[in-house]
Amino acid sequence: MLSHTLLTYGVGPVEEASGSGVLGLASRLCGLVLSKPRCVILVRLLLSVPGVSSDDIVIYQRVEYNMRVAVVATWGLPLMWRRVKYFVPKFPSKLCGRPSDYSEVALEREGYSSTAVVRDALAGHEVHVVVVGQESIVAKCRNAPGEPRDDKQKVDAEVCRLNGELHGRVASVEELRREAEDRLRRYVELFLGRADAVVLPAVGWYDGYRFSGSLDSAGFFIVDEVYRRLEQLVPDAVVLDVTHGINYMPLFARQAVYMASKALYVRRGAPRCLLVVNSDPVTQDGQDAAINIVESVELEGTTLDEVLVDLAADKDMTPLRLLRGAPREAVEAAGAVRRLVKDVAGRLGMLADALRLGLLLYFAQVGGDVRNLAESVNKAAEEARDAVLKASLERDGTWVYVVRRLAADPGLARLRILAELLAWAHGEAQRCGAEDGFYKLNCLGDAADALKLGVVAKTLLKNEIDSLSDKLKGWAEEGPRLACEALGESCKPCSVDRRILIAHAGLAKALVDVARRGEEFYVRLRRDCAAVVETHLRKIEE
Fold first, then answer.
1. How confident is the model at residue 478 (pLDDT cuts 50, 70, 90)?
2. Secondary structure letter of residue 97 according to DSSP
3. Under 8 Å CB-to-CB from 250, ≥6 apart: which residues?
4. Residue 77 and residue 51 share a domain
5. Cα separation of 128 and 229, whole Å?
6. What does the alpha-carbon distance between residue 482 and residue 490 come to, in Å, rounded to a whole number?
7. Residues paired with 237 in a beta bridge
8. Are 63 and 40 in contact (CB under 8 A)?
9. pLDDT digit string (tens) for 143-158?
10. What is the per-residue pLDDT across 125-141, written as a single tens digit (0 to 9) for each?
11. How remote is the C-alpha of 429 from its chain's centroid?
12. If you write DSSP's letter for every residue of 446-490 in order, what string do you get?
């Protein structure tokens, strides 16, 4: 039985085993061979092997609940952080929900960074940290640090020295960004050992620097960067620590993490949970601080409809906006990006509306261009990214002015995610494809489940599939025939109004051809009817 089970899960033949040996083997396989979902299923199956003791259930629980967790943290100016004793509550087992008893402390630890303490409190899970900082970390120190008394103060002293030297010589934004990443990584290595580091474009006045531009660019970067990293990590849960974020960073981070997590849940079934944590504010004389769970979001049950609403972009969006004093080369860069996404946002919006309404057959048949659209959006996003990172450096007395003349719209980052999501959805819908442009009728219902369509859209589509299948049972021909003709009725091809289109989920008998192969029914949207559906979708968008 064990050999058969392992072969089923892609593992070579092994000798039969029982008891703790079985689950011990499973534990090793989970670490070396299998993905987390397949690992959990395998261990559940192995629990049925004769001879497995009840004690081995502990191993199963370890596999079930030891999750991959992404910790995203916003960091402002680590120089300002003070050493306090942090109290971390006991996190719920699956990192969903809130502790039932805040008096139960899982960890007490002194330190400068809440992120490090949160990471330690998640011991037993596979934890990956993404730290989001900004260029202002290179600001000059207001006061020279005293004699270092610990490792953090040693790093502070070195950072102050380096920042002072940089302020006197910096000549390009490229150099400034390299140095900003270096400063951020010094603190990352000190507190965390290793983590991903993201440096956002800064805006505002900081000691010795004036960063001018637009907060939109920071919003664009954080959405794009957070999504890319969560997509690579595929975490079971996400913990967002906003304790150290300054100004707009926590707000932008929460929006980005929530949006990205929902989109990835629909595509991959994970992450399933999001926790947002923040410590008590610490004053100059503060000595301790509790880590608070300020928000808990369970993502299971999220539908594609919800995500498509989150990612909706204005079809008239200006992806790269000119700011005051923009030179000719900036105007040219903005024009190039605008041309790349011209009409793309509207087209993607129309395909998204089709899915939201349950028009899965239309989406499958006419959405074949979505991958090309995604490539255009990707190129536009990369060009916008490069353009925004460029800046001029000007000196005026003791101030260094970092001036940006272009701003990237956060909607462009959302459009990029939308295009990728629709490309994935189209691939799922194509699994129902057959010859001559037909699609298996019952398979469309399965695809609706796989795509996590909204409740209303899925209900309308499945009801129409059942109704059409039932009505065609007595049809003896193979077809193809217009559906109304196959049902012995007369109708004008493509003659549907918006109400009928939506009520029948795009499978109205005047819109589709039907065919029969044995006991299986197939449907195909008439080519000349696609334009009618598109006209109705345009009116819905307006």
1. confident
2. S
3. 74, 242, 278
4. no
5. 10
6. 10
7. 69, 273
8. yes
9. 777 777 899 999 999 9
10. 999 999 999 999 999 99
11. 21
12. HHHHHTT--HHHHHHHHHHHHHHHHHTTT------EEHHHHTT--
- The CATH number assigned to the domain holding 534 equals 1.10.3740.10
Per-residue tokens: 154: 């040693």
How far does CA 129 lie from the centroid of its chain? Answer: 15
**Nearest to 321, CA basis, from 382, 404, 401, 199:** 404
3-state secondary structure of 409: coil
- Note whether residue 317 is domain-resident: no
Q: What are the backbone angles phi and psi of residue 245, rounded to the nearest 5°?
A: -70, 150
Burial of 66 (C-beta count, 10 Å sphere; 0-12/13-18/19+) = middle
Phi–psi pair at 380, nearest 5 degrees: -65, -45
In a domain, 50, yes or no: yes
State phi, psi for 14 to the nearest 5 degrees: -135, 165
What lies within 8 Å, CB to CB, of 141 at 6+ separation is 79, 159, 160, 163, 164, 207
Mean pLDDT of the chain: 86
The secondary structure of 143-172 as a DSSP string is: S---S--SHHHHHHHHHHHHHHHHHHH---
Domain containing 240 — which CATH number?
3.40.50.10640
**Domain-embedded: residue 309:** no
Instruction: Give the closest residue to 242 by CA, choosing from 222, 214, 269.
Output: 222
What are the start-end ranges of the H helices in 367-523?
A: 370-389, 410-429, 441-450, 455-471, 483-486, 498-503
Domain count, the chain: 3
DSSP-assigned beta bridge partners for residue 136: none
Q: Which residues contact 229 (CB under 8 A, 6 or more apart)?
A: 70, 130, 196, 198
Q: What are the beta bridge partners of residue 524?
A: 513
Handedness of CA 505, 509, 510, 512 (dihedral sign): positive
What are the CA-CA distances from residue 288 to residues 86, 89, 148, 291 (Å)? 6, 14, 22, 10
> Structural domain of residue 103, as residue ranges?
67-302
Report d(CA 278, CA 288) in Å as an integer: 13
What is d(CA 113, CA 524) in angstroms, rounded to the nearest whole number? 59
Helices 328-341 and 370-389 cross at an angle (nearest 10°) of: 160
Task: Name the DSSP class of 213.
Answer: S
- Kindly state whether residues 46 and 86 are assigned to the same domain: no
Last residue of a domain, one of 279, 302, 325: 302
Place of tokens 């490069």: 386
Tell which residue, 241, 38, 30, has the closest CA to residue 126.
Answer: 30
* Ramachandran sector of residue 19 (left: φ over 0; alpha: ψ -120 to 50; beta: rest): left
User: Is 348 within the bounds of a domain?
Assistant: no
Radius of gyration in angstroms for the set of CA atoms belonging to the chain, rounded to a whole number:
28
Q: What is the mean pLDDT of residues 238-247?
A: 93
**Edge-first strand listing for the sheet containing 481-482:** 439-440, 520-525, 512-517, 481-482
Shared domain check, 180 and 76: yes
The tens digit of pLDDT for each residue in 289-337 reads 889 999 999 999 999 999 999 998 877 789 999 998 888 888 988 998 9
